[in-house]
Amino acid sequence: DAGVIQSPRHEVTEMGQEVTLRCKPISGHNSLFWYRQTMMRGLELLIYFNNNVPIDDSGMPEDRFSAKMPNASFSTLKIQPSEPRDSAVYFCASSRGQTNEKLFFGSGTQLSVL
Amino acid sequence: RKEVEQDPGPFNVPEGATVAFNCTYSNSASQSFFWYRQDCRKEPKLLMSVYSSGNEDGRFTAQLNRASQYISLLIRDSKLSDSATYLCVVTGDYKLSFGAGTTVTVRA
């Protein structure tokens, strides 16, 4: 079985550029989560979708961040414009149900904003 | 106060030793509890769920203390391959809250 697939694995960009991160959840999973991980703040939940609908986006840092889930098999996280403080590892995770279910994480996208 | 707090460690232990560490949570209404393992530069992976009565999975034992609002993880007969960061996860409503992790290093 394919796991959660994220792309790209690494992204290096300059401040002010738009960055789009992509995620394909495991087929049949109806919950999708975007997390950001840094040394200072650990794993932070950015946004949670259930059945393609955003349920909680209170973790999205600011208006520069947006996320979409146009269908059950695809989600994007966009940062526009990017800033150096956005540098982090961004993980996408999916689960079959809601949050009492096991989370499966993708391999993450290492983002560096110069 | 953070929702989930862990001793960051590191815990440096020799092979074969027993190591244990705790995680405290602030929301008394929390419903489910998990331990995830994260290797360096990798994604977190579920190690085990934590049940009210405590549970074991091989060399790993997890305990929950609702009265004092903490969970614990004990690793017996530690192996070099147990070196990792262990993340405590607590759920409430629909939200999972991750601790910052406890780093364990097992030395030969």
Helix content of chain B: under 10%
Radius of gyration of chain A: 13 Å
Largest sheet descriptor of chain A: 7 strands, mixed
Individual helix count of chain B? 0
Greatest contact pair?
A: A-B, 19 and 22 residues
SS content category of chain A: mainly beta
Shape of chain B: globular
Q: Averaging pLDDT over every residue of chain B, what do you get?
A: 93
For the record, give the distance between the C-alpha atoms at the N and C termini of chain B, rounded to a whole number: 37 Å
Report the sheet-strand fraction of chain A: over 45%
Number of strands of chain B: 11
Please estimate the helix content of chain A. under 10%
- Specify the overall morphology of chain A: globular
Taking Cα atoms only, what radius of gyration of chain B do you get, to the nearest Å? 13 Å
- Per DSSP, the total helix count of chain A is 0
Topology (elements, then pairings):
The complex is a heterodimer of chains A (114) and B (108).
Chain A: E1 5-7, E2 10-13, E3 19-24, E4 31-38, E5 42-50, E6 53-56, E7 65-71, E8 74-79, E9 88-95, E10 104-105, E11 109-113
Parallel strand pairs in A: 2-11
Antiparallel strand pairs in A: 1-3, 3-8, 4-5, 4-9, 5-6, 7-8, 9-10, 9-11
Chain B: E1 4-6, E2 11-14, E3 19-25, E4 32-38, E5 45-50, E6 55-57, E7 60-65, E8 70-75, E9 84-92, E10 95-98, E11 102-107
Parallel strand pairs in B: 2-11
Antiparallel strand pairs in B: 1-3, 3-8, 4-5, 4-9, 6-7, 7-8, 9-10, 9-11
Structural summary, described in words:
- The complex is a heterodimer of chains A (114) and B (108).
- Chain A has no helices and 11 strands.
- By secondary structure, chain A is mostly beta strands.
- In chain A, the strands form 2 sheets. In chain A, strands 2, 4, 5, 6, 9, 10 and 11 form a 7-stranded mixed beta sheet that branches.
- In chain A, a hairpin with a 2-residue loop joins strand 7 and strand 8.
- The mean pLDDT of chain A is 93.
- Chain B has no helices and 11 strands.
- Chain B starts with a strand and ends with a strand.
- Chain B is mostly beta strands.
- Helix content of chain B is 0%, strand content 56%.
- The interface between A and B is medium-sized, with 19 and 22 residues.
